[in-house]
Amino acid sequence: MFALVDCNNFFVSCERVFRPDITGKPAIVMSNNDGCVIARSEEAKAIGIKMGDPIFKCKPLLDAFNVHIFSANFSLYGDFSKRITSLLSETTNDIELYSIDESFLRFFEVPAPFQSYTALGQSIYDTILRCTGIPVSVGFGPTKTLAKLASQLAKKNKTPSFDLTKYPIDTILKTVDTQDIWGIGRRFKSRLDKLGIHTAFQLKNASEGMIKQALNLPGLQTQLELRGIPCHNLDTQEKPSKSIISSRSFGKPISAIEDLKGALASNITLAAEKLRKQGLTTSTLFVFIKTNKAHDDYMKQSIVVNLPSPTDSTQRLVGLALSGLEKIYKKNTTYTKSGVMLFNLAHQDSLQYSLFTHDLTKEEHEKRLMTAVDLINQKLGKNMVGLARTKGKIRPWESKQNKLSPSYTTEWSDIPNVKC
DNA sequence: TCTGGGGTCCTAGGACCC
DNA sequence: TCTGGGGTCCTAGGACCC
User: Fold this and answer.
1) Extended beta strands in A101-160, E state
2) Could you tell me the pTM of the whole model?
3) Mind giving me the DSSP string for A43-65?
4) Is the CB atom of residue A103 positioned under 7 angstroms from any atom of strand B?
5) Across all strands, nucleotide nearest A184 (CA–C1')
6) Which of A95, A284, A303, A379 has the most crowded CB, counting CB atoms within 10 A?
7) Euclidean distance between CA atoms A310 and A324, whole angstroms
8) Nearest of A124, A106, A104 to residue A114 by alpha carbon
9) Looking at A81-90, A215-224, A236-245, A329-338, which range is the least confident one?
10) In angstroms, rounded to a whole number, what is the distance separating the alpha carbons of residues A358 and A281?
11) CA–CA gap between residue A287 and residue A390 (Å, rounded)
């Protein structure tokens, strides 16, 4: 049996833990740069605010209903996620961290002392709510796809726990639209529509050959999972990243190359930190700059930089990125976003050095510098030390975060005071 | 005026090998 | 008239997820 534990309105729920005054009131969380809606409370959904809507478009609704608005605070959400994971590990070690707000669990029998999976789910709900303040929905099913569906049904039926195997499956699948199935996105939905397949029940019973032809292997696997045949295993191991991306929209549009350099240096700083945290190095750097995607004259420029030898040094990567930038930069262009991607990631201990350009002394020096920088920032706060280029007094590239809540659980200075 | 960020997997086609 | 068979690796693009 698979279980999916899904946090309800996760980002909004995290904000509410420290703002009990907004319980029962409409609230949303915005994406980086305060651009669009990425999380909504039930009340916000009810008044018609859509996922992914640009803020300026739903401004009238937000004002009219006095909606509480938050900038994304990922250090807060990440910390809650960790706490929830650690609570789940008390139930079983057979656990896969699927996303920041979802985990899959696997059971071979109902664990003692519970009488049923439904009761187990209720207990998971109670524990997580009591210890963290976050409400979750727990769904049970014989495959991941069905467990995921079960957790959606739990939400729909306003119950903490839902065991799909306790109900006549086909009756339920007849009520499920194909686009609500995990693995069926917009494109697949429209292809299925053309085949006359609109419900989960129809997809389950369609001919395998037809589905394979229309949706390829991933679609076929989804079909089999609906039939109760597991195609997706539980990934309990945390795998090292294959790529690392760091990109940000600018607080204000930028044209000057000096400003772009500052933005790019910040992107690299973040990406290289992620790299070192996993003990990885990169040997391929991808740099991109973009204009506004929503405009007709949308443009993007990019360049691939292959490194002579693998590195995890912020300094070295910034140097390479900036010379790449000079090659792609166009004058008199209004850029709104920059970013970097790191590829060909390898573990530090299995490095393949270049025969000719390898300079051990220099590498040792860089390594010690980066270790010191990471340590200081970890101890004294984010970005306490960094490259001068990212530290200018005016940083027009810096994302808007006008409604940022405190980092209640991850910064000493932000811990709430309680008076009693 | 104003529209996020970070990932993975699969497939088809091309290039190459014997 | 008839033009082999089997394989790997790489890349770009498309699809999905949160």
Assistant:
1) 102-106, 136-141
2) 0.93
3) HHHHTTPPTT-BHHHHHHHHHHT
4) no
5) C16
6) A95
7) 17
8) A124
9) A236-245
10) 15
11) 17
